[in-house]
Amino acid sequence: xxGHSDDVPLRLAxxxxxxxxxxxxxxxxxxxxxxxxxxxxxxxxxxxFATLDRLARPGLRVFEFGCGHSSLWWxxxxxxxxxxxxxxxxxxxIRARARxxxxxxxxxxxxxxxxxxxxxxxxxxxxxxxxxxxxxSHFDTxxxxxxxxxxxxxxxxxxxxxxxxxxxxxxxxxRSLCAYFAAHWVRPGGLVVFDxxxxxxxxxxxxxxxxxxxxxxxxxxPGPVNDFAWCTSLFAQSLAPFxxxxxxxxxxxxxxxxxxxxxxxxxxAAPNAVHRDLMHRIHGTDIFAAYIPTLAxxxxxWNSAHPAFDxxxxxxxxxxxxxxxxxxxxxxxxxxxxLNQHAVAGTVVAVDSFLGSLEHANSESDLFRLIARRHGMPxxxxxxxxNLVRRGVHDRVVPLPxxxxxxxxxxxxxxxxxxxxxxxxxxxxxDVLQDARSYWDVLAPGxxxxxxxxxxYWPSVxxxxxxxxxxxxxxxxxxxxxxIVRKPLA
Length: 490
What we know:
single chain, alpha/beta, seven-stranded mixed β-sheet, 16 strands
């Protein structure tokens, strides 16, 4: 033991040099949480940060309660980041450096809440009434104990569908209340990141996470800025986030020239009311909330992309596009990508029976072998869903597995008016003509009807398209293999 006390300064110096300094701990405090090279990092323990750094990947969606350097770090790692803060002093410096894949929300104290599901109202009231308090209102607000005055802040998450986010970070105001909503809104297999879990005052939030089946993994130790140890916890319902996230690695396409520093930063991938409404009216829920792709990507198809699509989306910026006859999703993926590219908050309704067409029914033909089957049933729908998720555009698409006639009747009943309708279902003369006539009624005035296969190989399509244009008294534009007509404004 001789000389042990004399070794302490040397050992501390080595600890700093070998462990803390490479992590950025020695940076000036006024720079905030940064790495050694000055890059922003989350203000959580280094142990938790190392785990998240390994897990973060393109394509994931993250919601943050509390805006700061973590927002910038997440934006450089994942596909989409939504951050809410009550204080413009935290929000505006981040807005000035924001990336196009970030959405920054300001929800001050007493902000009006989003609509709360009826079955949650009693739980929320009980949580607010039972929340721990120090008796000092300022202390309670600063330390995230005050839930009563931050209902608008906490419910900002509810503007997105349940299951939309892969990870939700609780590191701001009203933490127990935010944890309650996080437990209900994160997708199955996702993570809830909860900072300062050494504090017992957030027990109501921990309890709700446990009640929803979340296990808690604590990461104690030092972290940026602070000169003491604390705890950041990751809550998960399974080991899925640690062995493979239930999402695709591909980055969701975003508009590269989207507004950043000086203006709004919500672009492209944010959900829109039309999408949510149609998804829930057709399916009763978000069908992608717990969906994990089961098939490898296969987007084989024909004539999926065309310059006319880009031109129409750029001109009309349609809220609704209807894609009739989607096969494995090539055209749907292309159209959804255009909505992202042009920062249009729209949705693509994808119509198909997912059984294939007449030409795919002959077991001796090459076309028959393009469809995987299970016990004789075509697996096109499963392939379509897998492709959407693997390409990262499923948040832009509402699948409608029906015949074209039944789907059109349903959309008409819902009062849908589409700016662009693409018809590529049957190639039979009567079917093409009937699809054009039916979908003309759900095409908005000034909208475009685009058909496929206007080619000598398909004389039945040419005949039907020409007859339809003459019947409606509109000019048909031949941009082979597409044919295009526009509905008059009046």
